[in-house]
Design a protein that fits this description.
The protein is mainly α and about 170 residues long. Helix content is about 85%, strand content about 0%. It contains five helices and no strands. The chain is rod-shaped and about 130 Å long.
């Protein structure tokens, strides 16, 4: 974006205050204009909500363990490794990873909220500093004007004194 198209600072501030911090839920596209996108988002969210629990991990562990006796009876190490990697680890780790991602998403939301609040506080301080500087500029201008008048008065007095002593 070039400098000509940048939003004015107050417009940007107003828009950010209205929007608030961006959170994970804001990215779910549940209000997308496309029906298919909304449907996919809702379906994906529902499946993730169900599968992304420790209860699903426990259930998947039991399902995977049902096949373990048959694998052990074969006694083939390759079959055991395949069962371990494809049946057990994939089934069990999927919901555990989703649980971890959900926890990380909550932490990211908390960080976003804290960062947003920090930025808002810093912005408020900057606005107060700016107002203070404007006030100081006005006082300095008034003092400069008063000093200029004093210098002009002293110059007149000096002229009179110089003319009077000659």
């Amino acid at each position: 974006m070039d400098a000509m198209n940048l939003p004015k600072p107050q417009e940007h501030l107003d828009a950010r205050v209205a929007a608030g911090p961006i959170k994970v839920d804001d990215q779910r596209q549940l209000d997308h204009p496309s029906f298919i996108t909304r449907l996919n988002a809702k379906l994906g969210l529902k499946v993730t909500t169900i599968i992304g629990t420790m209860w699903a991990a426990y259930l998947f562990s039991l399902i995977a363990l049902v096949g373990l006796p048959g694998v052990i009876q074969k006694g083939d190490i390759v079959t055991i490794v395949i069962w371990l990697s494809s049946s057990f680890l994939q089934l069990v780790l999927l919901p555990i990873i989703i649980v971890g991602q959900n926890i990380q998403a909550k932490a990211a939301d908390a960080r976003a909220e804290a960062t947003y609040n920090d930025a808002a506080a810093i912005l408020q301080q900057a606005i107060e500093i700016q107002a203070h500087l404007v006030s100081q500029d006005q006082q300095l201008a008034a003092q400069e004007e008063a000093l200029s008048k004093m210098i002009a008065s002293l110059s007149l007095v000096e002229e009179k004194l110089t003319k009077g002593s000659s």
